[in-house]
Known about the structure:
The complex is a heterodimer.
Chain A: E1 8-19, E2 22-33, E3 37-41, H1 48-55, E4 63-68, E5 71-73, H2 78-84, E6 86-89, H3 101-106, H4 120-133, H5 149-162, E7 167-171, H6 179-194, E8 198-202, H7 206-212, E9 215-220, E10 223-229, H8 235-243, E11 263-272, E12 276-284, E13 288-292, H9 299-307, E14 316-319, E15 322-323, H10 329-334, E16 337-340, H11 344-348, H12 355-360, H13 376-390, H14 406-418, E17 424-428, H15 436-451, E18 455-459, H16 463-469, E19 472-477, E20 480-486, H17 494-501, H18 505-508
Parallel strand pairs in A: 3-8, 3-9, 6-7, 7-8, 13-18, 13-19, 16-17, 17-18
Antiparallel strand pairs in A: 1-2, 1-4, 4-5, 9-10, 11-12, 11-14, 14-15, 19-20
Chain B: H1 2-12, H2 14-29, H3 36-61, H4 69-84, H5 104-128, H6 133-152, E1 157-158, H7 162-169, E2 171-172, E3 175-176, H8 177-195, H9 197-207, H10 209-214, H11 219-245, E4 247-248, H12 256-266, H13 278-297, H14 302-330, H15 334-337
Helix pairs in contact in B: 1-14, 2-13, 3-8, 3-11, 3-12, 3-13, 4-5, 4-6, 4-11, 5-11, 7-11, 8-9, 9-11, 12-13, 12-14, 13-14
Amino acid sequence: MEDQPDKIMLEIKNISKSFPGVQALTDVSLSVMKGEIHGIVGKNGAGKSTLMAVLMGIQQPDSGSIMVGKGTFSSMTPHEALEAGVAYVPQRISMMGSLTVAENILAGEMPTNRLGFVNWREVFREAENRLTKLGLKLDVHSRVEGLSIVEQTMLVIAKALFSHAKLIILDEPTAALPRADIDRLFNFVRNLKTQGVAFIYISHHLEEVFEICDRVTVMRNGTVVATDDVRNLTTPLLIGLMVGEELQGFQRITPPHAEASQPVLEVKDLVRRGRYENIDFMIGKGEVVGLAGLVGSGAASLGMSLFGLERRGPGSVTINGIPFTASNPEQSFSQGLAYLPQDRYQYGLVGIRPVRENVTYPILYRLAMAFGMVNVEKEKKVVEEYIEQLGIVTPSMEQLVSLLSGGNQQKVVFAKLAATQPAVLILHEPTQGIDVQAKLDIYRIVLDLSQQGVAIMIISSEVRELLGICDRILVMYEGKIIHEFRSGEPETTPENILLAIEGGAYVEK
Amino acid sequence: MWRSKIGPFILDHLIWFVVLLVYIFFIFLIPNYLTPSNMINILLHASVLGILTIGQAICLMSGNFDLSAEGTLSLLTVLAAWLMLPYREAKLAQAGGIGWELHPLVVIPIMVLLGMAIGYINGALITRLNINNFITTLAMQLILRGAALVISMGFIMPGTPALFNWLGGGRIATIPISVVFTIVLFAIFSYILKNTTFGRRLYAVGGNREAARASGFNPKKQITIAYMLSGFLAGLAGWVLLGRLEVSVPNLGQGFTLETVAAAVIGGVALSGGTGTIWGAFAGVLLLSIIDHGLNLMQVDPFFINAVRGAIILIALLIEAQKVRFRRGMGKKPGGAAPVQAPGKLSGD
């Protein structure tokens, strides 16, 4: 593709952005042509989200320039970004679900008659017209909440185009879609591409990047490491670029643990249709096992359903040889299984209650005296012990949890789980959204617990984190455990694990 | 010192300073205001409202409204009179009971148990069928009021027995028993919410229902218990009120619902659930009672009373809203508390 100036849709030059303590973007340059689908790939924390926030005008860069269409900006407001024609299609779409397709399309510009009443026949005709122009077949009379996810995604794209968007950012648009719908979406996007619309396509699914994109930009640690035509790239090459040299001579944070002797958690033939199937694995005493997989691979669902936040299908689960029959969190705790949810704000903590109460929620029944009174003296001792042991920084145990920093909040969740003295601990993305120091603290806490004999499972998409802390890493893809990587063996490299996560390419080889 | 001790203390008890301020205001405004009988009258005014407010506060702490309590009170008072009074021909808008003449010691447990049963139905509808709590309890209020009218046929039923009236109308020396009873109830429920596992679970469920579930609690059960307690208290409030009036009036209790919500919220119980104390709610009840009583003594035009009450409720809520900001300022790291806003939250369309 020739770099003719009039064909350039977006040109970002030398953008840098720092947050307190973090350099999020360093000297990022990127260009997108008219009619191009430009993929952006990178691990979590590579700077993709920050770059998109800059493009949407949500974050203002410290330096650099952005040229969109005809305008050039040193920073944009969200309004300027929209005016310039940048539209963002999020992973989770929010539209006015109870209104019809036509109403969503024409919201704010409904045709009316002289008395100010909506001219409905005109509304539906106009909406139909507009969709036909884009080659999109949707029933304009149906309600948006009745559409499938892919139809809603296409409708959002269409709506953006009706408000004169020229560059559309698709953020993981296929995460929740079956294959047939992905084809439908891709055909729609390709069709728009021929009409000159430019796309930025963000995805963890590298296969799809190869399928749909013209060029790919790889980001790592807030910088652009490469931009190239997809025809010049291969999956291993891309993964190599994403992971970078930083992991070539990667040092384990911990020495591998002793070979697990005594099985604690044993799962056999666990099935839940549509989520996971044939799940067979074992975690030994003091062992740390990673479970890696993309969104929709079934890893998250497996963790939730073991704990009882979701239904669990048929199959056998035992803890220390005793059948594990819990179907809700209360029973799970009492049968020795604790779970750290991914979203600590939604599932982990009651923000407007003090640290003291949050820590003892799962063990409240053990602190009860006559007439259900709480033994507060005993409670304070327990909480004090865990604040000390986990290094929770708080002015006092009466501080409201919502006033703590992210890392300390996560430690409160850990304290709460550790207080139940579980045999099995399942952690879902335990270091998400916390700073580096707190991450190291969390790793130390995990290892301490494993040394106390707790069998630990970590569900995470951070391969580096898993490599640093796990004895074994199980990889899930499309609901099945497809491979097991053992720590210390030559095949256990970040590249191989990422390949397996991406869809079994490594395993099939 | 200011940041660590005095500041939070004042914030936590701000409502009591407001109560005191308003009280002092009336002392200066009304001659001979500071008499025991005035104080007792305020407390008397606060008793039925107070008992209902405890129930409302408990439901609000669980994250739910209870708009049905005034309906429960209405039905239970009518029912109690109907069961206790001798039969008599309806005449001049007055009537008697069904003629069973049940003993008060039988009727009082019936009132309380029936109140709890109504609470259980509320809780079951809301938690098991997932119907909105506001609408469910509003509908329940209408049904209960309707039932009260059907039973009484719209007649008043005068002459409840003395044994029954003892709680609502009796006095020890000059102190009304109902006032003592109300304060004891506040003390008991304050203790329960503060010191028992039930209280803990209730606050947790109200603060974050999903997190409470993931912590091993059963939110449906806690919410149902909250409604049952509210129904129980509505039964007691009905006993007090009917005992004081000695006559059942079919539309008794009308307008209490919004006052209980206002009193609880003024006292620091958040509508979103999870915070607030029973003593705070008591302060809210006192504030409303002092204002009503004071405006009455001043012989303010009744047309103005509602407007003044509304204004005072608004001011109290404004102060409450500001408290959050002050508290943040006193917290260690206010910035670190907020979840990181993901770019995806702002969609481009």
